[in-house]
């Protein structure tokens, strides 16, 4: 009798919640379809990288791995890509804002699955992994190096490896030790004084550095999570069991996520991101320069000499659809930032583009209150969560915790 009363109470609770949380078999066909769309099994193969003909060359990937961890690719000899993109922290750093030679204005994004990105960085100011990889190298707060120094470093340390992949190195003996169009005043002056063919030769080596690093980063794929095992069982028409089973609270959170919380509007697909930019009313971080997000990223990606349409890209113009047909209205993108993937999200606080929000609980409160944007127009519509609803949503997000990042096949 006691057991029967307990079962009846559980059933009544599920009915009151209107969630059927106690039986995943009660999921609707629409819910099952949404769950399937978020599963890692829906990810599909690596997309092509038309601007980088070495993108899937194993030799380039191995070279890129070595460069990724090489502190010699910095002006101080103390910073590598792995300084901010730490493999032990989902290839990010857990800091509010990245710190290389100095602190930057933005949070470090994780790299697993970045090969599927349409745009790179929070503001989309680069349109490929290889163009993205070049940008921190010359940023004075990140790697603080310069273009000719990097080309000469490759010639001095990696000449044999480079030439096996990319062909003969140019003669760099007459180039300045330190010169760049983006460096110090002296470096810019020396760059301007170089002959056009010297600048072109340096740019080619520099571009190939980015292409090698990108080839390595393409091997970093999202990993299977508890949610993926749950989703696989659901898609197969089975009741999830063992380490695939969800608690009642986790299932409630999942149904909120794909339902009334409207999370799918931006966090959709198997990487739980739409790869686009949204103003969500996040307040600027105190003490930082004005940051207009995608509104400035639009011009930056168009003017990047290493973009898909640039002379060092391996793509035909027809293959550069994202760049050719992107939205160019800066005012509509004011304070809009790239939707981050939610895979592994519970393990990498703080949140938002400059680490403004400390916890998942505070993130949910932000989306619940839907504050107006400082400028531009916030897209967020407030959603009222009960305390249990907040707990449920967080419980679901924890099922997306990343396991070890794996190399893709």
TrEMBL record:
Coiled coil: none
PROSITE patterns the record matches: CYTC, PROKAR_LIPOPROTEIN
Subcellular location, principal: periplasm
UniProt keyword 4Fe-4S present: no
Signal as UniProt keyword: yes
InterPro entries attached to this UniProt entry: Cyt_c-like_dom, Cyt_c-like_dom_sf, Cytochrome_c_Peroxidase/MauG, Di-haem_cyt_c_peroxidsae, MauG/Cytc_peroxidase
Spans through the membrane: none
Subcellular location: Periplasm
Domain of life: Bacteria
Domain Cytochrome c, residue spans: 248-401
Pfam families membership: CCP_MauG (PF03150)
Alphabetical keyword list: Heme, Iron, Metal-binding, Oxidoreductase, Periplasm, Signal
Name recorded for this polypeptide: Methylamine utilization protein
Phylogenetic placement of the source organism: Bacteria, Pseudomonadati, Pseudomonadota, Alphaproteobacteria, Hyphomicrobiales
